[in-house]
Structures are given as C-alpha cells and as structure tokens.
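Hey, resending since the last one bounced:
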Amino acid sequence: MLATILACVISAVAAIGVYILVTNVIFKKSLKKKREAILKEAEAEGEVIKKEKILQAKEKFIQLKSDHDRAVNERNQKLNQREQGIKQQESSLGQQQQELERRMRENDKLKEPHCRAGTAEGGGRPDDKGTECPVGADKRHEQ
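The structure tokens again:
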C-alpha cells in the first residue's frame, strides 16, 4: 500500500509538474501573442499619427505658401501702381516739356522780326523798344 501511495504521490507531483510546464508554455505563448498584438496596434497607431502629422505639415506649408504668394502679389501690385504713376508723371512731364519748347519757339518767332527791324545787326543790341534781343536770334533762323 505504501507503494501505491508513493506511486500516487509521484504521479500527482509529476502531473502537477506537467501541468505547471504546460500552463507556463501556454501562458508564454499567450503573452507573446498579446505582445505582438500590442506592437502591431502601436505600429498602426504610430502610422496613423505619422500620416496625420505629415498632413498637418503639408497643410501648414500650403498655408504659408499661400500667405507668401499673397504678400508677393500685393507688393507686385503696389510696384506696378507706382510704376504706372511714374510713367504717367514722365508722360506728363514730356508733354509739358514739349509744350514749353513749342512756346519757346513761338516766343522766338515773335521776337525775331522785331529784333531784326530794331537793329541793323540784331544779336544782343536793344531794339527800338529798349528790350534785349537774344544773341544770334536772327542768325539761328537764317541758317
């Protein structure tokens, strides 16, 4: 009977040992699967976060580029307006200069006959009214 009890105890100890080994192996496999599942989930979550951050960066870049382009366009418009204003001023000054030259020619034409008539030679001598005739006024028009 002692042998039977001893055999039962040894069998029970062996069964508990096998149970612990099998449970340990199953537990390790379960932990490994959970770890792999957690890693996969973390990697997928990381990819989602990465894609979101990339998208945010692209949106920020587009916004900054849009702001920059708007500022450049505003500066270009101001430059074009200034350029057009300067061109208008140049045109106006050119017209004023032409008008002034035309008036000076008319003035010279008006002075010319009375300078010749007032002096024998003209050219800087006072005419009969006492005004000074331009030097060479009659010589310029004779050529």
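Helices lie at 2-118, 137-142.

Sorry for the duplicate.
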